[in-house]
Amino acid sequence: MGQTKIICIGCPKGCPITVTYEDKTITNIEGFGCKNGESYARNEFTSPVRVFTSTVKVDNGEFALVPVKTAGSVPKNMLMECAKESCRITVKAPVNVGDVICEDFCGTGIKLVATRDVLCQ
Questions:
Q1: What Pfam families is this protein classified in (predicted)?
Q2: Is residue 68 part of a domain?
Q3: Is the whole-model pTM more than 0.90?
């Protein structure tokens, strides 16, 4: 039997949650202050996800890089792969906030979008 401590980010309270498990099966969750906390802890233990943020290169832009983020969450275990892939991407200026940089980022089905405008040089 093992335990994992998780700080919930489901609401501003930041409850310290303890997930008790045997093998990979959850046997108990305690410390959550609301239903969101229980759900968050269960998901974080079984299949954690994150929004990926980074930058990609810009050709002929006023800035050399444009900040980007995924339009949804990607599996946490893919973050390094996402970082490597973002280093391979180059876009041409101009770039506008919300422009889709990649339709299916790293095969996740999630879009990678620009989060700032970059004008041409």
A1: DUF1667 (PF07892)
A2: yes
A3: no
